[in-house]
Design brief:
By secondary structure, this protein is of the alpha+beta class. Strands 3-5-6 form a 3-stranded antiparallel beta sheet. A hairpin with a 2-residue loop joins strand 1 and strand 2. Helix content is 30%, strand content 23%. It has a single domain, classed as Transferase(Phosphotransferase), domain 1 (Orthogonal Bundle).
Length: 108
């Protein structure tokens, strides 16, 4: 996950990794604060998603995925729980734990 996030330059639709600390046999990741994830937004019956919101989230998702692919990163775990929503309604892709960095020279 660290390697994948380090490969990606700052992008508006990728969650920002702020710091990493070693902890025991693993690491603690510090990311920018995000209010919720898309699965929470979908389940919120008090504020149903409008067509406009769905289109906006899809544009942001595709923008982030396209950027990852341009930078040789394959996320491999896109799901609503890994799509975080900021306080301003901005969607960012998170959880690159299953991501692969692929070599353009090798056939996939």
């Amino acid at each position: 996950e660290i390697k994948a996030l380090q490969e990606i330059e700052d992008h508006e639709n990728i969650v920002k990794l702020l710091d990493v600390f070693p902890h025991g046999m693993g690491y603690i990741f510090v990311f920018e604060y995000m209010l919720s994830d898309l699965s929470e937004v979908i389940r919120n019956v008090n504020q149903p998603l409008t067509t406009s919101h769905i289109k906006s989230y899809m544009r942001m998702l595709l923008n982030g995925v396209s950027f990852c692919h341009e930078n040789r990163i394959m996320h491999r775990d896109l799901k609503p729980a890994n799509l975080l929503i900021s306080t301003t309604g901005h969607l960012k892709i998170a959880d690159f734990g299953l991501a692969r960095i692929f070599d353009k020279a090798k056939p996939q």
